[in-house]
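Spend some time on this chain, tokens included, and walk me through the fold:

. . .
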Amino acid sequence: MLLIFFQPSLPPKVCPPPKSNIIFKPRLEHRATKPQPFSLEAKEEEARKRKAELVRLAEEEARKVSIPFDEAELPRTGLSSQSGT
């Protein structure tokens, strides 16, 4: 047979009520946001330079990889460029 012992419940801890003679009044400094002028010209110019550099590098890489093309080296297939006749 099991005996279960219960402790008597303790009363909950309660905070004391606030003092009525102290009133909460925060001191707020009211500040407005002042917009400042700005320009995106410097960022746009930097982006243009970066893009031009990437294009230049891509063209340079394509020139390195490309093989000179000579039409005379192509084999003849015997097909004429005219179709239908």
